[in-house]
Amino acid sequence: MRLPRPAIAGLAMTVMIDFGYCLVLNGGMDKFKVFSYEDRSGKDLIIKSVKRFTKSQKSKYIRQTLFLRNYGITRNNPVLKKIVGTRMWEMRSLGKDNLRIFCAEYRDGVVLLHVFIKKTQKTSSGDLLLAQRRLSELLA
User: What InterPro entries does the record tag this protein with (predicted)?
Assistant: First the structure.
C-alpha cells in the first residue's frame, strides 16, 4: 500500500484553484506533518471531499489543517476530542458549518482519515466506521 501524501500539497493546489489565490505556507516552520488519506489507487479522498465544500467550509478546513501542522494532536486543545476505544481523534469546528475531521497520530505527524460537514446532532455511525476502516488499512 502506498503511504499517504502530505495533505498540504493537495491543499495548496485546492486553494489556488478554488479560492483564486495561493496560500503562502511557512516552509520548514511546521512542527508536525499532516498526511491526507489516499485509497489504494492513489486518489486523495480528503481533498476530493474538500473540493465539494463551500468557500467558508474550505476556509475552516484550511485553518484546522494549519492548526494541526503547528500543534499536532494534544489533549488540551478544545476543538480536539479523543474518540473512546479507538486511536482516532475528532476535530470539531462549530458555527454555521459544523466541520468534522477524523484524524489519528501517524508516524511523525497526523493523518486525516475523513472530513465531512455534520448536519445532525449525532455523528453518523457510517462516518465513524469509514474513518476506522481507513485507519485499519493504514496500520495493516
Answer: HigB-like
